[in-house]
Write a structure and sequence with these properties.
Radius of gyration: 23 Å
Helix content: 10-25%
Number of helices: 7
Shape: globular
Number of domains: 4
Order of helices and strands: EEEEHEEEHEHEEHEEEEEEEHEEEEHH
Structural class: alpha+beta
Strand content: 35-45%
Length: about 400
């Protein structure tokens, strides 16, 4: 098999193969992925690169298909280190197709335009995690959305009612996130595990959910196996251990790590005085605790091996085992995978697959649920290493 790239037009119709020198893809679990493809600046490639609203379909050796749309178009002139001649290339880059969902907010009243929203609007949904996720995606980006808000070609796969029961209200209130992908991650944090994807199928982009696998007994990454190269972890004191939430008629306290430690006990006030919803009040406290977990950092450098390869033996969201030191292992999900095919040197063609297991705080940004999970994870690893007197 080989890595191949095709260009699609605005109607998702293939316009032909793209001749490339380097392909760099990053696919992420429940986050928007990214792609960059370097191509020779030839007449044929320039015609393909100028297709309006173009997208790419990348077949990675028959085990994984990556699709995405163009965001940046950059011509580059450089000097070949071997011949000294000028070389013209184009660098095309963009997001994977999950970006069409991430570009949307959830309207409190998805049936009316933004200028007709009201302060009292609320789209409250309770049900299986998959059902609630697909409701918000359908009414804010899919066929059920207002015509002007529908993402081109996006369809929603049939609901299989996977995941446990969750509840979320898209509404105008302090602490309520209306970003569609953030809502999805919040729902998955309580009703998962579930993964979401947008996959091209013919003339459609199909949004669907999937259940990651627990491969912790069969998929191992460790220095002894040669597929875990380095690790680096650190954690600082939490900035919030006790969230004191004021509701309209009730007062609720949500506690986190070190809440009973007199030296680290840190209280924060959370104002939910406009709400009587107990679930929303508690969630606001949980979010405040997550936001105040303190700086955390976990960085692992792992590599693919033939006996443990992405797309064959594991995928995004699957739970694997990482053995940092003999006797110190933990299970974590595969949060991202970078795929690079490089023929730019002109002499040696290389393919590299680099999985990310867990996440560093810099990778998850403002995702408060992921920050909280990461902080707990890093503290547990640090305690295990301290017991072994590794540091």
């Amino acid at each position: 098999m080989a890595v191949s790239v095709e260009v699609r037009d605005t109607n998702l119709i293939s316009k032909g193969p793209l001749t490339w020198t380097k392909v760099d893809l990053t696919t992420r679990y429940n986050r928007v992925g990214a792609w960059s493809i370097t191509i020779p600046d030839t007449p044929t490639n320039r015609v393909l690169a100028n297709i309006p609203d173009l997208g790419v379909v990348v077949d990675w050796n028959g085990v994984f298909t990556f699709t995405g749309f163009l965001e940046n178009w950059n011509p580059v002139k450089s000097i070949d280190a071997t011949t000294g001649a000028f070389v013209d290339t184009l660098v095309l880059s963009g997001a994977d197709d999950l970006g069409v969902v991430a570009n949307r907010l959830a309207y409190p009243n998805p049936a009316v335009v933004w200028t007709s929203q009201t302060a009292a609007g609320s789209d409250l949904q309770t049900g299986h995690c998959e059902t609630v996720i697909k409701h918000f995606v359908n009414l804010n980006a899919g066929p059920g959305a207002l015509t002007a808000r529908r993402s081109p070609h996006l369809t929603i796969a049939a609901d299989s009612a996977r995941g446990s029961t969750v509840s979320y209200a898209a509404r105008f209130a302090a602490g309520v996130d209306l970003t569609l992908m953030n809502i999805i991650r919040l729902l998955v944090a309580t009703g998962g595990p579930l993964g979401v994807s947008v996959v091209q199928s013919g003339a459609n982009l199909v949004f669907d959910c999937y259940v990651p696998r627990d491969l912790s007994q069969t998929a191992w990454f460790s220095p002894d196996l040669g597929n875990l190269r380095t690790y680096n972890l650190s954690v600082s004191t939490p900035a919030a251990t006790n969230a004191l939430v004021r509701g309209s008629t009730t007062f609720t306290e949500v506690t986190g790590t070190d809440a009973t430690n007199g030296w680290r006990h840190t209280e924060v006030l959370v104002d939910q005085s406009g709400s009587t919803d107990a679930t929303q009040i508690t969630q606001a406290g949980t979010d405040a605790i997550a936001q105040g977990t303190g700086a955390t950092h976990l960085q692992l450098q792992a590599v693919d091996l033939p006996q443990l390869a992405f797309g064959v033996h594991y995928g995004l969201g699957d739970r694997v085992t990482v053995e940092i030191q003999p006797g110190v292992s933990y299970t974590e999900i595969v949060t991202a995978v970078q795929l690079v095919a490089d023929a730019s040197s002109g002499t040696a063609y290389t393919e590299t697959v680099t999985p990310t297991i867990g996440a560093a705080e810099s990778d998850i940004g403002s995702d408060k649920t992921a920050t909280a999970l990461l902080a707990a994870e890093v503290r547990a690893i640090r305690k295990a290493l301290q017991r072994l007197q590794v540091f």
